[in-house]
Design goal:
The complex is a heterodimer of chains A (800) and B (58). With 800 residues, chain A is an alpha+beta fold. Chain A folds into 6 domains: 53 residues, no CATH class; 92 residues, Alpha-Beta Plaits (2-Layer Sandwich); 121 residues, no CATH class; 98 residues, Distorted Sandwich (Calcium-transporting ATPase, cytoplasmic transduction domain A), CATH 2.70.150.10; 148 residues, Rossmann fold, CATH 3.40.50; 106 residues, Calcium-transporting ATPase, cytoplasmic domain N (3-Layer(aba) Sandwich). Chain A contains 26 helices and 28 strands. In chain A, α7 runs antiparallel to α11. By secondary structure, chain B is mostly helical. Chain B has a domain of 39 residues. Chain B is 62% helix and 0% strand. The longest helix of chain B is centred in the first third of the chain and has 26 residues. Chain B is elongated and about 60 Å long. In chain B, 0% of the residues are buried. Classes of the chains: A alpha+beta (800), B mainly alpha (58). Chains A and B meet through α5, β5, α6, α7 and α8 of A and α1 and α2 of B. Chain B: InterPro entries: Cyt_oxidase_maturation_cbb3.
Chain lengths: 800, 58
């Protein structure tokens, strides 16, 4: 017994997992499995034990029983060419995505990879992206060996079909930062040159150097006008061509008025112009744009099935030899072998073995489906249990799942969301501004023509809706940041606006409302004694069927020897334990006709010495925090779309309330249609899902949030990714996005006050350069400060 | 007061230098990853004699 307790205390020196099954020792250190020990020995031999001193137990628990042969497809020149970033006669460069990377030890080991293989010349880690860039001498080491080495030390790179698609890797777009840099530089210098004007002592300086300063500022503001501010003018022009007023139109008009007035004043030597305000405005607005554009580039929101599919599959040749080939080159009639937990890449017919396919990610069914030889297995399922042999009947690109994905209904038309707050406000703004400006013109023309022109341009200049254009990027940008801090990663700021309008919430069931890795064991029937439970457990220990395995883990007791063990695959088990004849399996196997209510459910029936005792069922475990979410929701319509059967209906109804609409056995297309129908009723739909089966619905809804246990894992394309641990905060997120919209309105109000004051001065022609120089930056900055602070404050109050 | 022209000329030249340096730094990807270099610089440099005698087993 003492050894048993010791086992519980010991953890693996490499990965930190408790050493349950076996205890392996090397250099007085204990390891949980041979995999971990091998990695340790490899590192030890090559003097890489710093790995263990940087962080304790940094390793990744080794996966067992995977042979290096599965990387054979990497020898294929075509696959290699698709993966490599660069190649010449001697060196190759490429970048791998390694999701396992998690600590500084990982960085250290990966950057010291050259010590393990002399062919590798350089490795550079980008920790935030979990990427490693590798340079190697390809005569000395092959791509396959590099990948095998990484896999061996626990950092298997994730290579998916999408990587080999040869899609252009999007280069980071620096143009906005360049524009920002140029605008900042010009703003600073123009401001410096305009300084004498702000001060009363500037009179004589102005007299002597005014022209020089003026022309210099003009030169400095040219790059701002032609380069940095280009985006505003382009967007406004496009708006005009489509006969639409967007927020950029008043901005462009204001900027143009500022620049032209300044140009006139400087050239005609009548004044110093407003170039400091002009460059400053462009600079501030670019900051706003930058803030709005800030994205989570480590996350990918637009993934399709190809990032879910593996690159290679084991093909069986005529002579029975296994060979690893690229999935893309699979042809109809090829025979493939799929092992436990591997994905079926193409629609295929089952030839051999007991197929138990887990379609939970594709269809939402929580229980694996049994298939017998001769049945067609659709791509996307995951085999659970023993290895199977299949014959491909359709090419990868022609498969059911792929077809579904390419289905036209799946592609939502990206409506250019011109309906955003700022744009609607901008429309009214420009109408009022133009009215006021022309009013000033009409008033002054009979009295004083030069004053009329001055008042007209002053109105346009002061009314420049910088505050309008600044408030919404800053409010939304800050909201995005706060969401990100609480693990809701939103694709762009437009999503926050949509989220605020949501009035209907649709959940997927499997994996979204329920915890995918957990299920609660439920027993109905005559009570089993401890001894009887032990007998059942002993029987189950011999079966590899996933249901048996799950049940085995839940039951208590020691394992005794089983005699005359028999397993009829897909039906049940029988055997003799301690003189008791036990049978366990499906209802049909034990000759029971279950009640109709139970029929929909997967159950394991047990009989002892021919007497039926009862049955075990697995109940879904709903996510923690579901109650809080439901309580906090201020939404009048709730629905559940499940690909699963209706067995849990009553429990779900009790949980969600009677008003909730529950729909079961929904196919991906049905889910999509349901959302479409809701939208036709003018509903703003928030869909929460997790699997490929929700992909269409997620795209169709106003806001599609993908729930995932690990944000770097595959998730279907969506508007936002929510970490499962933050699920309980869902209602807070919705409330907070509404709060953000109110803050935008409030900052519109602040800018309105400035505009009223400014316009009153402007129409009277009282506008002096000093007032404009002070008022304009102050109004911009105060709006930025107001937006940032109030979002922070609101977040604190909302408990985020 | 001619000196003002000279000073302004110099100040703008220097500022342009900084602008160019900034644009170069952005283009060369120095702002791509602001986490890993901070960790990397803390790694010890090991004695070089060990790496010479390494047994490459792969």
């Amino acid at each position: 017994m003492s050894t048993a307790t010791q086992h519980n205390v010991l953890t693996c020196y490499h990965c930190g997992e408790p050493c349950y099954n076996e205890q392996l020792l090397a250099h007085q250190k204990s390891f949980c499995c041979a995999g971990c020990k091998n990695v340790y020995e490899l590192l030890q031999e090559n003097n890489l034990c710093t790995y263990y001193s940087l962080e304790t137990q940094p390793g990744i628990a080794g996966k067992q029983g995977l042979s290096d042969a599965r990387y054979a497809y990497l020898d294929d020149a075509d696959v290699e060419a698709r993966l490599l970033d660069f190649k010449n006669d001697t060196i190759s460069k490429l970048t791998f995505y390694i999701p396992q990377m998690h600590c500084s030890s990982c960085i250290w080991l990966l950057e010291n990879l050259y010590k393990l293989n002399l062919g590798i010349t350089e490795t550079t880690v980008n920790f935030m992206r979990k990427e490693v860039a590798i340079t190697y001498h390809h005569p000395k080491v092959s791509l396959r060996e590099v990948v095998a080495l990484l896999a061996r030390i626990g950092y298997e790179p994730s290579i998916t079909l999408a990587d080999t698609d040869g899609k252009e890797k999007s280069k980071t777009d620096y143009s906005l930062i360049f524009k920002l840099g140029v605008a900042g530089f010009c703003f600073g210098n123009v401001m410096l040159l305009a300084f004498p004007e702000y001060l009363s002592v500037g009179k004589e300086v102005q007299h002597e150097y005014g022209r020089f300063f003026g022309y210099l500022s003009l030169i400095l503001s040219l790059p701002v006008f032609f380069y940095s501010g280009q985006g505003f003018f382009n967007s406004a022009w496009q708006g005009i061509r489509q006969r639409m007023v967007n927020i950029d139109l008043p901005i462009a008009l204001g900027l143009l008025a500022l620049f032209v007035t300044s140009l006139y004043q400087i050239v005609s030597n009548t004044g110093a112009g407003y170039l400091d305000s002009f460059t400053g405005l462009v600079f501030f607005m670019l900051i706003g744009k930058y803030f709005q554009q800030k994205t989570y580039d480590t996350l990918s929101f637009d993934r399709d099935y190809t990032s879910y599919f593996p690159v290679s599959v084991t093909q069986l040749k005529q002579d029975g030899q296994e060979e690893s080939v690229a999935v893309r080159s699979l042809e109809i009639g090829d025979r493939i072998r799929i092992r436990n937990q591997e994905l079926i890449p193409a629609d295929a017919i089952l030839l051999q073995g007991n197929a138990l396919i887990d379609y939970s990610f594709v269809s939402g069914e929580s229980e694996p489906v049994e298939k017998v030889a001769g049945e067609v297995i659709y791509a996307g399922g995951r085999q659970v249990g023993e290895r199977i042999e299949l014959e491909v009947v359709k090419e990868v690109s022609q498969g059911y799942l792929t077809q579904l994905w390419n289905n036209a209904v799946f592609s939502k038309k990206e409506e250019t969301s011109m309906e955003s707050y700022a744009n609607t406000a901008g429309k009214w703004f420009i109408i009022v501004t133009l009215l006021v400006a022309s009013g000033a013109l009409v008033f002054w023309v009979p009295r004083d023509t030069s004053m009329a022109l001055k008042a007209f341009t002053s109105v346009l200049i002061i009314a420049c809706p910088c505050a309008l254009s600044l408030s919404s990027p800053f409010v939304l940008g800050n909201t995005l940041r706060i969401f990100g801090k609480h693990k809701l990663f939103v694709k762009n700021t437009g999503v926050v606006e949509s989220l605020a309008k949501v009035d209907t919430l649709v959940f997927d069931k499997t994996g979204t409302l329920t915890e995918p890795s957990l299920s609660e064991l439920c027993y109905t029937g005559k009570k089993l004694s401890a001894l009887q439970e032990m007998i059942v457990k002993s029987l189950l220990s011999h079966s590899t069927h996933p249901l048996s395995q799950r049940l085995f883990q839940e039951l208590e007791g020691e394992v005794k020897t089983v005699r005359e063990f028999k397993e009829i695959s897909g039906k049940g088990l029988s055997g003799e334990v301690k003189g008791v004849f036990v049978r366990a399996g499906s209802a049909a196997y034990l000759g029971i006709v279950p009640n109709t209510a139970d029929a929909a459910q997967t159950a394991v029936y047990v009989s002892l010495d021919g007497v039926i005792m009862g049955h075990y069922t697995f109940q879904n475990v709903y996510r923690q925090g579901l109650q809080e979410v439901l309580k906090g929701l201020k939404i009048d319509r709730l629905a559940v779309l499940s690909g699963d059967n209706a067995f849990e209906k009553q429990r779900l109804q009790a949980l969600l309330g009677t008003a909730a609409e529950l729909n079961f056995n929904q196919s991906p297309v049905q889910k999509l249609e349901y959302i479409k129908q809701l939208k036709r009723q003018q509903r703003h739909v928030l869909m929460l899902g997790d699997g490929l089966n929700d992909a269409g619905a997620l795209k169709q809804s106003d806001v599609g949030i993908a729930l995932t246990n690990s944000i770097t894992n595959f998730s279907p394309s969506c508007d936002a990714i929510l970490d499962a641990s933050a699920f309980a905060k869902l209602s807070l997120f919705i409330d907070f996005s509404k709060e953000s919209m109110r803050i935008i309105l409030a900052s519109f109000g602040v800018s309105l006050v400035y505009n009223v004051v400014g316009l009153t001065l402007a129409v009277q022609g009282l506008f002096t350069p000093i007032v404009s120089a002070i008022l304009m930056p102050i109004s911009s900055i105060s709006v930025i400060v107001f937006a940032t602070l109030s979002v922070r404050f609101a977040a604190k109050r909302a408990g985020l | 007061m001619l000196i003002i022209f000279l000073l302004i000329g110099i100040s703008i030249t220097v500022a342009t230098g900084f602008l160019v340096a900034f644009l170069w730094a952005v283009r060369s990807g120095q702002y791509e990853d602001d986490y890993t270099p901070a960790v990397r610089m803390l790694f010890e440099n090991e004695a070089p004699d060990d790496s010479k005698s390494l047994k490459s087993k792969i």
